[in-house]
Amino acid sequence: MKTVSHLFFLAAIICLGSVNAFVSNNNGLARKSSQLQMTILSANGKKVDFKEGSPLKNACAKLGVKPKYSCKKGDCGSCTVTVGGSRIKACVGKVPPMPRLKSLQEKGLEIKG
């Protein structure tokens, strides 16, 4: 009988202790949303803002740059474009983050196809 009461007591402690596991702990404060980071890309005198991490093939299309696509998986490298001096495969690449240099932030990263 003692072991049954001990088990009941132990189960009650475990249940009461885990109740707080489901309670929100943010004290009514809303979580701050991260700022939307944009990158200016330019080609042929045209500048457009793009969301950092968005597909590069969409950015190329909006800027009028037409890379050659062959496999569309990034294996062949025929779609490689130069973005701010770095070579990126347009079919699988993402828009890079905004550069920290103020001169590049104003001009935008140049895309050459």
Write the layout of secondary structure elements.
Layout: H1 2-19, E1 38-43, E2 46-51, H2 56-63, E3 80-83, E4 86-89, H3 102-107, E5 109-112
Parallel strand pairs: 1-5
Antiparallel strand pairs: 1-2, 3-4, 3-5
Helix content: 25-40%
Helix count from the secondary structure assignment: 3
Strand fraction: 15-25%
SS-based structural class? alpha+beta
Q: Kindly report the spatial arrangement of strands forming the biggest sheet.
A: 2-1-5-3-4
The number of distinct β-strands equals 5
Mean pLDDT: 78
Rg computed from alpha carbons, rounded to a whole number of angstroms: 27 Å
Low-confidence runs of at least 5 consecutive residues: 28-33
CA-CA gap between termini? 82 Å
**Could you give a short account of the major beta sheet?**
5 strands, mixed
Principal-axes geometry comes out as elongated
Secondary-structure element series:
HEEHEEHE
Walk me through this protein's architecture:
The protein is α+β, with helices and mostly antiparallel strands and 113 residues long. Helix content is 28%, strand content 21%. The protein has 3 helices and 5 strands, in the order αββαββαβ. The protein has a 5-stranded mixed β-sheet with strand order 2-1-5-3-4. Residues 28-33 have low confidence and may be disordered.
